[in-house]
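Section 5.1 Outputs to date
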Amino acid sequence: MNCPNNVGGQILKTRFVLLLSIALCFAVSCSKPAAERRDRIPSMGLVFALGDSLDASINHSVYEGLLNMLRDYKGHIEGAPDRSYGPDFSIKIVEPGSQQGNRAELLRSLARQGHDIVVAIGYLFSDSIMAITREFPDVNFVLLDGSAPDLDKNSNLLCISFEEQEGSFIVGAYAAMYAQARSQEQEQRIAFIGAMDSPNTRRYYSGFAAGAAYVNRAFRAPGSILSAYVAKDSSGFYDKVKASTLASVLYKEGHASVIYGVAGTAGPAMAEVANRLGAKLIGSDIDLKAYLSSSSAEQKNASAIIASMLKRADRAIYAMAPVLFGREPFVGGYKVYNLADAGLG
């Protein structure tokens, strides 16, 4: 049956409007997410277990790695205008200071903010991070300087750790040679001070003792390598007074030629003791001599540092840049840095 011209025209007009509406809806639905993707920049959320970015230890190394990433990839730190090198990505840093706080809640808060990667610094997160990764399966997490069980490449958690005993072996050997060259006594002694009596800190001690004993048989004798720990809990990383007191005792009463200090923020305080007593100190995690030399208030103590065991957390954090920008896939599981790959030195 033929339709009247006005009826047929109305049908064609209705179809045209309908098709146009579908096309516009399709264009809007497709273009909006694309625009959102263009407007959204990659972001990283990072939280320290303790302290801040100027802790004279691993946090400082991490911060140096972040600054290198910001400069090279044109990014900025949220809330820090003086640390803005460009608009291409952002980093949010949470610094809890010496307060213990709720580490699980700190991780949860960063995950809820929608960061592409959430990074936790310090093995003190090891007890809480697994629960948070299960709570946020679509968020990628990195635990630096810690470990969690039962991970594989498909996990949304990457644990980055270091073979601290390897770098400590080197400085232990150096400490033994230094003591031997300068000791006027039959009995030679060197010493170790750790922040917290934990498996992580004992890796430093075991490598240090093994290196000393390897190059000098005198350090195989009981009592030739003295050791002390500032605390049994994480308060040892911030108890500068006790660390300084232990250093003084080991230098004066223990007759240690040199101390290897693995005591977090107490490195500069122990350097002050060493300088005052005319003794020597070996730093850990960062180049402590360079750190002290960069501070007008601490420069006078830099000469007490004869070496430092470097833990290259800066390189480890910088290596996350290609993942953050989507140039490389996120791979869960475990990554271990050692002497062979210049992760220590």
